[in-house]
Specification:
alpha+beta, two-stranded antiparallel sheet, 2 helices, rod-shaped
Length: 150
C-alpha cells in the first residue's frame, strides 16, 4: 500500500469502507503501541526500584556474613548470608547476572532508566501522531456519512 511507504494519501478519495479499514488498522496499532508504552513504564519503574536498592546498599548496617532474606520471586524469599557488602549481582538481561561494585551497579541502572526514558518519549510522540491520524479519519468518515444520500 502506498501509505506504508510514507506517502500521503488523500482521505477524500477513499471510500467509507476503505476509511473504516484504515481506522481499524490504526486502532490496532495504537492498542499495541499503548501496551508497549505501559510495559516500558513498568520496566523503568523496576530499574528505579533496583537503583534505590543499590543506593540503599551503602548503609553501614550492611556487614558481611550478616543474615538476609533473598527474594526469589515477589512473594518467595529464602534466607542467606551477605557475602560482600561492596558488590552486588546485576541482572543484565536474558538471565545473565554480572557482579558489580555498588557504584558501577548504580551507574548501570541510571543508564538503563535514561535509555528507557528516551524510548518512552519517542514512543509517546508516535502514539500522539497515530491518535491524531485516527481523529482525522473519524472526522472524514463523519463527513462522508453525512454527505452520502440515505
Amino acid at each position: 500500500m502506498a501509505a506504508e511507504a510514507g506517502e500521503a494519501v488523500n482521505l477524500d478519495t477513499l471510500s467509507v469502507q476503505q476509511l473504516t479499514q484504515v481506522k481499524s488498522q490504526l486502532d490496532q496499532e495504537l492498542e499495541h503501541l499503548t501496551s508497549s508504552f505501559t510495559q516500558l513504564q513498568a520496566a523503568q519503574s523496576k530499574f528505579r526500584d533496583c537503583l534505590r536498592c543499590v543506593q540503599g546498599g551503602k548503609s553501614p548496617a550492611l556487614k558481611e556474613n550478616k543474615p538476609i532474606l533473598v527474594p526469589l520471586t515477589n512473594s518467595l524469599y529464602v534466607s542467606g548470608t551477605l557475602a560482600s557488602a561492596s558488590h552486588v549481582l546485576v541482572d543484565v538481561g536474558t538471565g545473565f547476572y554480572v557482579e558489580k561494585d555498588i557504584k558501577s551497579a548504580a551507574e548501570f541502572y541510571e543508564n538503563k532508566m535514561a535509555e528507557v526514558g528516551g524510548n518512552l518519549k519517542e514512543l509517546e510522540g508516535i502514539v500522539q501522531g497515530k491518535t491524531n491520524n485516527v481523529r482525522v479519519i473519524e472526522q472524514v468518515l463523519r463527513q462522508k456519512m453525512v454527505s452520502t444520500p440515505q
